[in-house]
Please model this.
Amino acid sequence: MFREIEENLENNETIVLDGLNLERKQRQGLLYFTKNYENYKKTIYDFGPGNEKTLQRVIITRPKLSEKEWRAIHDENVKIYKKSHINEGYDEVIDKSNFA
Model:
């Protein structure tokens, strides 16, 4: 994955990474690859761990785990979540953490 990121950056292509990246440490690892590409606009859409409504949708649409298991995962995500901030190295932070 990282090799592909660098190849795309070298070719001036837009890169979209999807994942929770709830912790700053995870996000910093991804930003590392952009350090030599200052002309790139770095935007993060911060969805956070979601709320109760989000959790209920996951429980209903992903029945492979029980409600108890999904709730434990969600509670852990809430614990480790650190809101994205422009000072992390982004040009733009778009807060979507109140999505339903």
Notes: The longest helix spans residues 67-80. The chain has a mean pLDDT of 89. Residues 46 and 95 are 5 Å apart (CA to CA).
